[in-house]
Amino acid sequence: DEIDRGNKRNLPDLYIVHIAIGAQGVTDGYMWNPNYEKKLIPGKLGTVNIALMPFSNHILSLLKDSFDKIGKTFEIMGIHWRGSENDTIASWEILKSTAKNVHDEIFKSFCKSIGQTTPIILHRLVCNERCTDLDPSGESLEKMHYINRIFDELEAENENISIFDVRKCPHYIPDVRGNGIFIDDVVHYTPETNRWVAEEIFNSYK
């Protein structure tokens, strides 16, 4: 918007590294788990098979040298984590014994790979209907709240970790399917929500 309005001066270059594979968790058997077998098998959605933690850390480790080569210094505005929904179908035993430690290990590894302590923004899980669609018993919804409590604990214990809650957006509607923020699959945000999230986060940095 600033560039469109003719303000081309004093704006830094903006680079976004986007790593996204759907329906992934951090507990045993999911591709974000640190113990996931280290392999890369490309394919269509549902067949791709990759250990995401070492892959992502490799990408992040390239940033400093990449910017050095083009003569630029960089400031990491933040690493955003919008995930962990699939951990709501892990067993309670696995969730309670591994979820916090694994999230902590992943986030610390990101900072180590970049070479500096980096802001990490955890997006609170709010996919209530998705959980009840997967498990009408309500147990998955309880696990979603449990994961959010883990996020709260990580925020309290780490100065570089904060939580973003999409339910603060002006078009959020409680007690309506999709809450006004999701498309029909109650997983993916509407374009309006995506834009609001981006503006809120960007404005917080400014």
How would you explain this protein's 3D organization?
With 206 residues, the protein is mainly alpha-helical. The chain is 39% helix and 7% strand. It is built from six helices and five strands; from the N terminus they run ββααβαβααβα. The protein has helices spanning 52-61, 63-69, 92-114, 128-134, 139-157, 191-205; strands at 40-41, 49-50, 79-81, 120-123, 161-164. A three-stranded parallel beta sheet has the order 3-4-5, covered by helices on one side. The protein has a two-stranded antiparallel ribbon with strand order 1-2. The longest helix has 23 residues, at 92-114.
Order of SSEs, N→C? EEHHEHEHHEH
**What oligomeric arrangement do these chains adopt?**
single chain
Low-confidence stretches: none
Number of strands: 5
Average pLDDT, rounded to a whole number, is: 91
**Total of helices:** 6
Cα-atom Rg, whole angstroms?
Answer: 18 Å
| Separation of the first and last Cα atoms | 14 Å
Structural class: mainly alpha
What share of the residues does DSSP label as strand, in percent? 5-15%
Main sheet attributes: strand count, strand direction, barrel closure: 3 strands, parallel
Strand order of the largest sheet: 3-4-5
